[in-house]
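Quick start: read one record
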Amino acid sequence: MNIEKKLSALSTRIQYTRDIFGNKPRPELEAFANEIADFPEKYRDAGEDRAIRAIESLDQRLSTLETAMDAQLTAMDKVRIVRHPQRVCLKDILENVYDNYTEIGGQDEHSLDPGMLIARAYITRRKGKRIINQPVMVVGQEKGHGQEFRNGGSIKPWGNSKALKYMKVAAREQIPIHTYVNTPGSYPIEDFPGAAQQIAENIYEMAGLDVPIIAIFSEGGSGGAEAIGMADKRLMLSHGYYSVISPEGAAAIEGRIKGSERAPAELIESCALAQRITAQDNLKNGYIDEIIQEPALGARADHFDFYKQVRDQVVRATDEVTLSVRSIRFLRKAALRLFSKNADIIVRWSLSEKARERLVNRRYRKYRRLAQNAYKDNRTVLDKLTATSTGIVSSTASLIQYGLIKPFKQGIARVIEETTDEIHVVTGKVDSLFRCTLKKFGVKSNCDRLKEMELTGLSRAEEDKHVIESDTGYVSPQALADREVTCPHADKRGCLDIWARDLYTDFAGVCPNCGYNFPMEYQWYLHHIFDKDSVREFNRDIASGNPTGFPNFEQRVAAAKEKTGLQSSCLTFNASLEGIRLTCATLVANFRGGSVGAAEGEKFIRALELAQTKHQPFLAYVHGTAGIRIQEGVNGLIQMPRCTMAVRRYIEEGGLYIVLYDTNSYAGPVASFLGCSPYQYAVRSSRLGFAGPGVIKETTGLEIPPDYHNCFKALSRGHIQGVWSRKDIRKNLHHALLTIGGRNLYYR
């Protein structure tokens, strides 16, 4: 045994432990460090056998100390563990968990995004003389051990695009996907395709991949985690964390820290604890399915027993997902019971077509059940019974109208159309011969004269029948101020000052010179866009709460409810526009910045389900959103995949889903259930993207230009499909309803 090498290893372990506990004083650790420092002098004249025994004793004592200190870890200590350079990384797992692998999509720094690692791997399983090689697609964020080109596992949009590409390859080849989530968050960049844009696409597409997906979380940071985190089975390392925002970010928001200031360590520790970010917290709340136990103070590269445990649990999870959708229900349960008793059973991971359908449906149901206890349902028993009975009636009526009557009508109409087309072919030839005969004798038919008039006559302007001007009875409070308003572009474009009453009434908040759209209240939208007296709100009494028990947050939510008169930042209602009935969900900026938590997500999903039942188009109007509500922790973050799955199900059933952004829209909602819409529009002068200017500067150190999040920038990179003036919203929405839609065109 090399004594110096052993002493160096012990010193490294002590320094690692110091790093984990930050600046907290640990007298027992320092005493141990002093003992190691004095060891060469103390045992200089001792025999080698005695020195070796002494070192072995030190090793055992340090292991005991590490175990004792492991039990004292706080949430922030675990955050420091997953960020430590010695932390086990994806390359270590590929080398020690899988039997063989080939890295694809680039290699090390020679890659589109080195932080995203893709590998085609094999797991070899032996049963007696039988050897079975089971292929999997491994996708994950790679930090590396000090490899700066990995960008700390912070993935750029094209890295997430690469991950999605190969997950689709796995679905095409019908092999399971293992994703390893180890990221502090996605890199907040809006170059094409844009961080929010790509994460939304990843979540949407993963919801429909018809192969088993297993996710293993180490560091799950916000939207970066959700980009590859949707799975049928979610495992988490015991010292990992999964959170809507980093503890430092939460502390900066809570402490209103600005510029180069740093949040106090006590506040950071408090936020880490309050957000419920640990594996144990997430297991309790149901956001992960199992915990993979790590060695004391976290898994490092040389913990080989840990890799065996990861392999066993990952294989078992894949087997369980496969068995859960295979064969008939009775045999499936029997197989699962047998599997729990016999760990050596080999399960084939291939699935039949019906099993793949069950897998996708089961995934939807899994996420639909999450976060059910994280919001307040203040509806009375009568309200709940009324909602249930209304749902049953609507479902029955929908089944009769769209499942029976409509297909019958379509069949009859198809026969009539085909017959008419055949008749037109015959009569068209006869008509053509008749016209030719008339032309030979110089005679013009009435039809020819009409066509000639259309080509040579003067056109007449017709009134737009679709624009209805009416007195809605709503006047913006901003119009009551006796003042003049200056346009922000006055210096550049020569805009004159506008009287507030004129600006916020006749001009609808739009500068008559340059077209700048001043912010307006969401009530203006409700009263001016939809038909008069057609708005009918539902699920009003599903209310925001404080599911994590975040300090002093209950009072802030109560203050928002009192100020706005709303129970959450999401307003759901039915309305009509030019007689077309549609279902709407509005994120209101006045309520906690339009942030989304468990209540908002639940209301959004219920509105989508109602739109699907009633066969109505769905409009998401974003008056403004600051992202996911950080005080609700993963209860808020999980709404990203939950709502996106509901959107996907609605669209796949033929629904028309339109999103309209106003004012400022950022972060989680834009990077999921809003950003996945094929039809997204923005009100002129609005701003949207993944992260605000302050967050980008803090995380990247980059100064961004003032127009970085401008809606026209989003239009130029394809995130949205159009920019509208507020004056034209009603007309443009009606036009969209008449020209675009899903397969079934519900609104017609």
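DSSP finds 26 helices and 22 strands in the chain.
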